Fold this protein.
Amino acid sequence: MRRRTLAGEARVEACAGGRGLFTEEEAVVTLRPGEDGIAFRVGGVRIPATIGHLSADPVVAAFAELPPRHTVLAKDGARVITTEHVLAALAGLGVTDAEVLVEGGEEVPIDDGSAGAFVRAIERAGLREIGDAEPLVIDRVLTVE
């Protein structure tokens, strides 16, 4: 498998007033070429998009007793909220490496609730291949229930 990143920057800002679904904060998202996996940058902190950075802390107190309704990544006191639509766009387009800068707030703007705005922005920026990915080898039985 080949690794893939953006050919240039992709910016998403005017979607749904640029506001987050849960925080209602205005934010601008800039997707940049990367060479070290997918990571978000919020307030100067780089947060890798890995399982180890998932946060179970609720965005608002009302969510404390409910199942998670958003995907939050966190590191060193910084967090980025509602990352699933950006991640879906990147995965759907086969992007393996990118930096996602979130400015003005800590939540990705919701737009129409789909990954569409991010897909269109990434397609405008273009994609480029950056090398071969290390193959994933499953060396034991994994069970998911």
Notes: DSSP finds two helices and ten strands in the chain.
